[in-house]
Amino acid sequence: xxxxxxxxxxxxxxxxxxxxxxxxxxxxxxxxxxxxxxxxxxxxxxxxxxxxxxxxxxxxxxxxxxxxxxxxxxxxxxxxxxxxxxxxxxxxxxxxxxxxxxxxxxxxxxxxxxxxxxxxxxxxxxxxxxxxxxxxxxxxxxxxxxxxxxxxxxxxxxxxxxxxxxxxxxxxxxxxxxxxxxxxxxxxxxxxxxxxxxxxxxxxxxxxxxxxxxxxxxxxxxxxxxxxxxxxxxxxxxxxxxxxxxxxxxxxxxx
Length: 255
Hints:
The chain contains 7 helices and 13 strands.
């Protein structure tokens, strides 16, 4: 049985995790961290890690500052951390990497297993088609999402670029430039509207054919499922920095 501490337990993803974990036999929630102390059912909620009386794997769905606080607390107290917050700066990411020298830290901008399979497929497609096909990424999210492009779109783009020896330059807006598409462009477009949970398309556009890789999230439950799997995976690991590629390695022979 893996004990889990949820930072951001009052939020949408925190509530989704509570629902998902409630019916499982391989893990349980022992505490929550959020802006106000209280209870979520039988789960005690604290305002600070300093007040935490128990240990477990931390799942963070909060903010960049909260993610860093979770990782630093985990490093100081030997608690593995699954960091799911988005919008982290380079300094924040560096803090996570520093923490990973003392405790296992799992980091992904998107916790959906399906999205991360898409990323691996995009790597393979780039290996085969890169240089001959133009590549475009289109991401769609709900009207309240603050960042654009999404962290997931950038994850996809970075995976493609890594596979292509960093040959691509990201282009987010073509409205101000009247010129044909460059060979080194990788276009990233963002759509915001309604209640779209999250959709990502990767288009490999050739002269006479188009290959499209697409993922659509039907609910936030897919991100909670991925976070739970990451927590279960991380509980048995040594200190280090882990990603979805590590989790998928046992599931996909091509990773």
